[in-house]
Amino acid sequence: MTASESAQVETAKASLDQVFSLLEQQDLSQLRHLFEQMHPGQLADILEAMPPKERGQLWTLIPESQEAETLLLLHDEVRNGLIEHMQPEELIAAAEQMDANDLAYIFDEFPEHIRQSIEEKLPDEILEHLEASLSFEEGTAGRLMSQDVITVRNDVTLEVVLRYLQLHESLPDYTDGLMVIDRAGFYQGKLWLNTVLTHSKEMLVKDVMDSQQQTILATNDEHDVILFFEQSHLVSAAVVDEKNRLLGRITVDDVMEILRTESDRTLLGRDGLDEEEDLFAPVMSSAKRRTVWLGVNLITAFLAAWVIGMFTATLDKIVALAVLMPIVASMGGIAGSQTLTLTIRGLALDQITSGNRFWLVRKEVMIGILNGLLWAVIIALLAWVWFQDIGISLVIAAAIVINLVAAASSGIAIPLVLQRMEIDPALSGAVILTTVTDVIGFMSFLGLATYFLL
To answer: Relative to the CA of 5, which of 20, 110, 168, 411 has its CA 20 to 30 Å away?
Structure first.
């Protein structure tokens, strides 16, 4: 972590501690003054760090001008909890401050009567944009895009473009260029702002625009949008329909929000948690969510225990096996999780296809063999020093090789199979891998010991 990042973390902690202190003192005026100086992102973080009762109290202190953006930045469960207790007038006022695409993002979370009131109060232009956004499925570029975009025709001069820009009080955020369209509204290319400022004013837009700038289909998945921005290093990109008519644009801040959501989903999904789960949600609702995953884990644990139970006679006669047994499972689990993580990342970035899939499988198996042989020698020597039994040393060495090869193979095979079954590998891959490495590790170690040592 850099010095600047450390400073930001310390500042965030100080702000949160200050809020808790002022809240304990019930110094609401000072809290209100503090919130007026904060960015909506900071306010959202503070609200999410509060138990429900205190969260509701703090919400009433947030400046009205920041309510809309703060509401948008909250996780779904926290936002829904606040919406349930907000007055209709307050919800309508917050909605009127939002852009059409932002409003579309949370519109379905409003109660039905509030949605109707919002539609009645919105200006016709905003309402039209809202309905256009809602016409696309959630999780698509069409739902994500903003219609706040400046367009110019391709048959005008740069001087006309400059005069047109000067009519605007300000430009939309992240405007690095203007979208070029023809008279029928079909997308032609992008006119970079630096081109407008540095080229001759008599030149036509069509002669200096970037006609190679790629577009995003409104029906594209959000994940495709992330890859598009990553590969093209863009600040903004045009969104078009199947006929190449310009519909809006997506900016880098939208992509960063999707990335944050996907990161949360991957991190929490490995332990069976919902990325939208409120840290301070009521006990019962949190317990219900986690019970399912604990039940799945219990089944896999019993499976591993059943395998061990098959060799109780062996364990009774050779106690050293019980001491060494966790080493085999643990080594397999670590090796498999390394491969699993890299494979899930490759799938997320669309780097794994039918053309390189088998090459990767062979590579991971070879890594498993090499690491298996290396660590088999090391662990066998340590086992011999510990128990002075060459038989046990050879058995654990063989089990280590078998389990590391199985772990590497499973680490790449499990995500590929889950993806084909349209199951998120980040959610269930780890628990399946752990079961596989435990079962194969115990079976190989205890099975070999039973066969050769008894």
So the answer is: 20
Domain boundary among 238, 269, 300: 269
Closest CA to 261 of 272, 274, 251: 274
Per the structure block, which two tokens stand in for 163?
């005069």
Q: What is the largest CA-CA distance in the chain?
A: 94
155 and 136, same domain (yes or no): no
For the segment 64-103, what is each residue's pLDDT rounded down to a tens digit? 889 889 998 888 888 888 888 888 888 888 888 888 878 8
If asked whether residues 227 and 326 sit together in one domain, one would say no
pTM greater than 0.70: no
221 and 365 in a common domain: no
Specify whether the CB–CB gap between 159 and 177 falls below 8 A: no
Q: How many CB atoms lie within 10 A of CB 321?
A: 22
Cα separation values, 285 from 108, 280, 403, Å: 22, 10, 39
Residues 187 and 106 in one domain: no
Residue 273 pLDDT exceeds 80 = no
Would residue 230 be called left, alpha or beta, if left means φ above 0 and alpha means ψ between -120 and 50 degrees?
Answer: alpha
Helix (H, G, I), strand (E, B) or coil at 75: coil
**Is there a single domain that holds both residue 135 and residue 247?**
no
Residues 108 and 200 in one domain: no
pLDDT of residue 272: 53
* Amino acid letter, 92: I
Residues 6+ apart with CB under 8 A from 308: 315, 325, 442, 446
Distance CA 103, CA 71 (A): 10
Do the domain assignments include residue 236?
A: yes
Domain assignment present for 213: yes
